[in-house]
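Box S1 | Example of a co-folding query
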Amino acid sequence: MRTDTRFEPLVTRRLLLRRSRSEDAEEISAYRSDPAVRRYQGWDRTDPTAVRASIEEMARRAPGEPGGWVQFSVEERSSGRLVGDVGLSSVDGEPGVVKVGYTIAPEFQGRGYATEAVGALVRYAFETLGADVVRAYADAENLPSIRVAEKVGMRLVERLEHRHGDRVWHGRRFERRRDDPPAAGPYGPEPPDAAWGR
Ligand SMILES: CC(C)(COP(=O)(O)OP(=O)(O)OC[C@H]1O[C@@H](n2cnc3c(N)ncnc32)[C@H](O)[C@@H]1OP(=O)(O)O)[C@@H](O)C(=O)NCCC(=O)NCCS
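Box S1 (continued) | Returned holo structure for coenzyme A
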């Protein structure tokens, strides 16, 4: 896989994806601290100081570089407003695999922005970074996240159960391979009930 040391913002019909900057921390912290947004996310801290520190750490890494996440802020082109963030990360021990993550602020959800931004990120991972596989994980109950993965052409490849003490996390792993068709069926390889149930 390639490392992109000269990242240029990704421009879609309505959005612009650029590297996150320290100044984005307050806005990102505000929506990440919303209980509905953080419900299925693994962030330990969502306060501005922690978000800023994480942005600054990721800013030192180029997309495609091993070692962790790189984050992009998503701007609405018509207004310049920050509507969310997406990220990608290489996967230790699995060359050619890129993980993606995504968050859209509640007031901007339901407009297709996540699909548009993640679609651009998937294309970037294949075309610029030379990835073979793009992967996303979702909680089995996180239907909007699952839907976004499907809409960008990923398919359900694994059901996961991780035990944390006496609690069990039910997850789903979605993937799109470089030579997969642009979009799978409306709900991936399984009927909706099976794919979305537990
Ligand atoms: C997941 C998330 C990024 C989606 O953002 P978004 O911009 O609203 O997504 P889109 O508008 O592109 O698409 C959302 C899809 O989910 C569907 N959806 C929304 N709520 C749903 C629900 N309760 N049940 C089933 N589908 C639902 C929408 O109808 C849409 O699908 P459609 O186009 O087929 O109608 C956003 O909900 C979010 O930030 N959630 C919190 C953070 C998170 O959990 N991120 C994912 C972790 S991997």
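The pocket of coenzyme A is lined by residues 37, 40-41, 101-104, 109-115, 136, 138, 142-145, 147-148 (CB under 6 Å). The first strand starts at residue 10 and ends at 11.
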